[in-house]
Known about the structure:
By secondary structure, this protein is mainly alpha-helical. The longest helix is centred in the middle third of the chain and has 37 residues, at about 90-125. It folds into 3 domains: about 1-45, N-terminal domain of TfIIb (Single Sheet), CATH 2.20.25; about 105-200, Cyclin-like (Cyclin A, domain 1), CATH 1.10.472.10; about 210-305, Cyclin-like (Cyclin A, domain 1). A 3-stranded antiparallel β-sheet has the order 1-2-3, with no helix packed on it. It contains 12 helices and 3 strands. About 55% of the residues lie in helices and about 5% in strands. The chain binds a DNA duplex (17 and 17 nucleotides) through helix 11.
Amino acid sequence: xxxxxxxxxxxxxxxxxxxxxxxxxxxxxxxxxxxxxxxxxxxxxxxxxxxxxxxxxxxxxxxxxxxxxxxxxxxxxxxxxxxxxxxxxxxxxxxxxxxxxxxxxxxxxxxxxxxxxxxxxxxxxxxxxxxxxxxxxxxxxxxxxxxxxxxxxxxxxxxxxxxxxxxxxxxxxxxxxxxxxxxxxxxxxxxxxxxxxxxxxxxxxxxxxxxxxxxxxxxxxxxxxxxxxxxxxxxxxxxxxxxxxxxxxxxxxxxxxxxxxxxxxxxxxxxxxxxxxxxxxxxxxxxxxxxxxxxxxxxxxxxxxxxx
DNA sequence: AAGACGAAAGTGGTTGA
DNA sequence: TCAACAACTTTCGTCTT
Length: 308
């Protein structure tokens, strides 16, 4: 738990994530970026001569992948330079310019469109800026490697976003991505696997805990129930009940059990809908949890209390 | 009547020959 | 490349509250 206590103005969630490098405070529940451009945590320098100034200068346009040329376009020379050249050299110069123009316009046109789409989907899902940047970076790499060929631009954008979310530990389900982008779930999964394989992006299997906060707030569960769910989840992980299982199913079952124990019962259907799994899956995980973790007493106790 | 439970058959993805 | 396999889903009937 963080030492500062602050609530998200959007959803009231308390799971805030501080990203020092980017100076952002992110709500893990709804993805809202609460504070941008906070103080710069880097050391402040003063420069006394040109050499130091060059090294230490931190100003200038920031490099960003959400601009199609990363904010740093490079051209093959300008016209005023050609007086230095002549004959062959001059021809070469024009040839280079022509080629650069052709290549860059093709890629740039694609990137411009794609990044617009990326921003649209990203803001629909209320993803933090850092994830958007990451997705843009992934997409740019994919374009450069020609991985978009044969695939729709939109599906690659969705795949890049999905990957970026996972890397930043604010995972969204494929269903959510699908709803936001209008691309078929399977298609996103396919392109996601393809581009991560081709680009050698290593992604850890997503941790069910990362889903708890968002699901809990969607179910309007109290903070106590939420942390109870996390406890249960951790026990489950220690008992090796989680490997090989779908992380959303486990998160959903933990929440369901926690809601029973804390007398804040939600139906299996409610939890299932939010988590994007079926009741059956929740039941299966739920049974395993009860059996292996000896939680039966706790649950039945609360049931008795209800009767009393 | 709604929710919980469980069986059975089907789907898509991974793995290992 | 194909078949076996595990996880998950869909569907449906039954039991419980």
